[in-house]
Amino acid sequence: MIREGTARLPQNDTEPFQEQRKDELESRQKIFRWNEWRPGFPMSIDANVDDLPKEVQFDGEKNSQWYWDLAEVFIETKLDKIDGLMESWKDITDFEKIFGHLINKNQVLVDLMQNWTEDYMFGYQFLNGCNPVTIKKCTDLPEKFPVTHEMVKGSLKGRQLHEELRKGNIYIVDYEILKDVPAASQRYLTAPICLLYKNEVDQMLPIAIQLSQTPGEMSPIFLPSDNEHDWMLAKMFVKSSDFIVHQLVTHLLKTHLVSEVFEMAMYRQLSAVHPVYKLLMPHVRFTIAINAEGREKLISEDGVISKVSSFGEAGMVKLIHKAMEALTFKSLNIHEDIKARGMEDTPNYYYRDDGLKIWEAINHFVSAVVKIYYDSDEAVREDVEIQRFVKDVSCFGMNNSHKFPESLESREELIEYLTVVIFTASAQHAAVNFGQFDWYGWIPNSPSTMRRPPPQRKGEVDMKRILETLPDRDCSRNLLGTVWALTRTEKNERFLGMYPDMYFTEQPAKIAIKTFCHKLKQVTNIIKSRNKEITLDYCYLSPDKIPNSVAI
């Protein structure tokens, strides 16, 4: 039986085609099987790169582009000409030797290299760098971080600490999730806490750093008034911890792995004629394939990320397990996340400003499509395929997580759910992926690993100690090559709203897509105008630079 291309809900299909849908899904469930790659991880596909179903493999062009990007960095830079790979660098400026011509193509990186030691640049990155989702407003200092007014009064310019806390000008970044996470052999991993102050010109400045979760004589609170090298190394340890949390939690777990769960459940539970299948298809393109490549080449025991980072396999598994315990479906909604962190009115927070605009555009588009095919809340409840899709995500993909919905009761719940799926795969991934070369390319700014333990007393750090702590030449080379390759888009990339495969044939759905594209163009123009008025462009959430899916 050959059916027409019209999207249909299962309850609206004729009986012969309902049987066809059932057979289609039974067949797919045999191909798309759940597998737990590592204990505590979200479930993923039970297949290696070479065994992937044809539907989810890279096409020939994408496959060759992936390997060319990896090779290009060695051609463009001097990575193959570095002597003494296992040695420390002799001077901070030596890190410039590995860039070759790449540095001339990146204004953000040029600006960072000139200003990376400045406190305002350190603070700016918590708002608009690779990991803009860890900072939160601080109204009460935790007991484990005994910062006093006397310590920070020099940073507050005559203002009282308790008053600035009350006014909402104090912020905190706490890496408690890294406590007791084991580091790799001869590497060091800390769980620091950093206090920041929004000053009178709206700069976000660090004012106190503790490099552990346990205060005491052997864990001093470092301050901007300390000697230059103490403060520099304290900030480096914070940024190194931020690198780990970004790579494994913000990036890997909350975009790549979560998106694969949504894709697996889609293939397993939604017929190809289901309108939600048609809606999601552009936003799952190549996700299973890139994750399979990542499991083999990046985060495996001998993968590149494992080689350049402070964690081994045991540390990775423990960190993901802890992050999974804290992960909720609501936290993937940018509105809920911003509210939970008290970041609604923080100035110069472009990730929030642009992200909310993208969310609204996606939400409006999803709402239009859902209301074309579902005429009531009851239609959502009666849709057996969508209910099984949601349950598959929660009970199987997320390891029986009770923090994800197991059913949907209304059109509004379905709209939010699908907005989360599309936003996570497109905008959120773009926000936390495509800045990696910008912010990690200059190794001292965000060291991927630390080779000496954190200082336990003040006054013991000099430049020699810092260079011995930073990644060695081999680690620097591998990291630079990796973040370069991971921030490339393919030549024929499909950006948000580009749907050349035309899954929908109905005119109302086509109109909804056209309206969505128009809205995205408006957002792009707003962002371009804003960027002309600020010192450092923020482009990661400009719709013309957001791929539809997690594909790199």
Walk me through what this model shows.
The chain is 48% helix and 5% strand. The protein is mainly alpha-helical and 552 residues long. The chain has a 5-stranded antiparallel sheet. A two-stranded antiparallel ribbon has the order 1-2. β1 (34-35) and β2 (44-45) form a beta hairpin. The radius of gyration is 24 Å and the shape is globular.
Topology:
Blueprint: H1 15-31, E1 34-35, E2 44-45, H2 60-76, H3 107-115, H4 119-128, E3 136-137, H5 149-152, H6 161-167, E4 170-174, E5 193-198, E6 204-210, E7 221-222, H7 228-269, H8 275-280, H9 287-297, H10 304-308, H11 313-326, H12 334-340, H13 350-373, H14 377-382, H15 384-397, H16 411-433, H17 436-440, H18 463-469, H19 473-486, H20 507-531
Antiparallel strand pairs: 1-2, 3-4, 4-5, 5-6, 6-7
